[in-house]
């Protein structure tokens, strides 16, 4: 059952349209306590993603959460961006306010480490981009894995990919980092495409956002309209899937996103399959489960929770 005690979390993200809504959900929902936001390369350059995170915080009046710039490239691979999906800014569509907040000093790894140390209880890292920052943290201070309640990652897939035939973008952007985090022993939850593709932003969802009449809700509606246009062009999908807030939802209320235990590895060597997340749902390998893997979404309750969060802003 969901806990009555707010779960302390850090959001590690690469805003990104769906990351923006994940940030709004994580700050507004009373089931979690958002302690920090860290930014990584991915949907755009880390500098553009940092600006987007600060702009979303400015838009929503989020002034009590530090935001830090993280890794600007994968551990070993060339940088890969997604302007075809998220635009040249990473948050194309409606105009966002000029950020009035300054980023936290130092690297995202420093903010992550400080947040973990200062917390009176273990902190969950909700990661909605490549896992480079988390891998760098565990390299720098492996003892801090004891201060992590777990990593809940929007990434991967139990089936097909969305950037290569078998790799989802967050996994493909830094497969080595994802495997390092898996190998660290930190409790790991994968919320993959097969689940997030159930979180479709249909026209009625945009209508509900527009009907709220607030600046934040109108901006979200505009972001989702842009996102729908690029998804339609890139994938032929009439409605875009709202990937990243589903990872936050798993922490808000685990019954929204049920999981199964399975052995998970991230392919790092395949010529055609690098970044593929190999999920042994049927026990073929005989290896012990090392991850919780999302296997569904209560879409109606998820959307109600997300829209209630957006409605709480002006």
UniProtKB/TrEMBL annotation:
Entry keyword set: Glycosidase, Hydrolase
Superkingdom of the source species: Bacteria
Gene3D superfamilies linked: Ribonucleoside hydrolase-like
Residue stretches making up the Inosine/uridine-preferring nucleoside hydrolase domain: 9-304
Gene Ontology terms, MF aspect: hydrolase activity
Coiled coil: none
Entry annotated with the keyword Hydrolase: yes
Alphabetized Pfam families for the sequence: IU_nuc_hydro
InterPro entries assigned to the protein according to its UniProt record, in alphabetical order: Inosine/uridine_hydrolase_dom (IPR001910), IUNH (IPR023186), Ribo_hydro-like (IPR036452)
This protein's name: Nucleoside hydrolase
């Amino acid at each position: 059952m969901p806990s009555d005690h707010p779960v302390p979390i850090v959001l590690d993200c690469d805003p990104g349209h769906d990351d923006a809504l994940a940030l709004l959900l994580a700050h507004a929902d009373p089931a979690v306590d958002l302690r920090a936001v860290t930014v990584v390369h991915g949907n755009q350059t880390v500098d553009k993603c940092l600006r987007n995170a600060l702009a979303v915080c400015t838009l929503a009046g989020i002034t009590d959460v530090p935001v830090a710039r993280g890794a600007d490239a994968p551990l070993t691979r060339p940088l890969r961006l997604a302007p075809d999906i998220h635009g040249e800014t990473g948050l194309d569509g409606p105009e966002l306010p000029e950020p009035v907040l300054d980023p936290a000093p130092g690297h995202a790894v420093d903010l992550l480490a400080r947040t973990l140390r200062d917390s009176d209880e273990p902190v969950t890292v909700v990661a909605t981009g490549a896992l480079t920052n988390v891998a760098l943290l565990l390299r720098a201070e492996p003892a801090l894995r004891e201060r992590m309640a777990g990593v809940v990652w929007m990434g991967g897939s139990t089936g097909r990919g969305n950037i290569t035939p078998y790799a989802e973008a967050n996994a493909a952007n830094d497969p080595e980092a994802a495997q390092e985090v898996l190998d660290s022993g930190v409790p790991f939850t994968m919320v993959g495409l097969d689940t997030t593709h159930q979180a479709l932003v249909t026209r009625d969802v945009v209508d509900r956002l527009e009907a709220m009449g607030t600046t934040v809700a109108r901006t979200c509606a505009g972001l989702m309209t842009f996102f729908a246009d690029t998804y339609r062009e890139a994938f032929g999908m009439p409605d875009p899937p709202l990937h990243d807030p589903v990872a936050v939802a798993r922490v808000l209320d685990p019954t929204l996103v049920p999981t199964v235990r399975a052995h998970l590895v991230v392919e790092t060597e395949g010529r055609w399959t690098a970044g593929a997340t190999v999920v042994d749902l049927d026990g073929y390998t005989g290896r012990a489960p090392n991850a919780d893997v999302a296997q569904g979404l209560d879409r109606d309750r998820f959307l109600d929770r997300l829209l209630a969060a957006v409605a709480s802003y002006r």
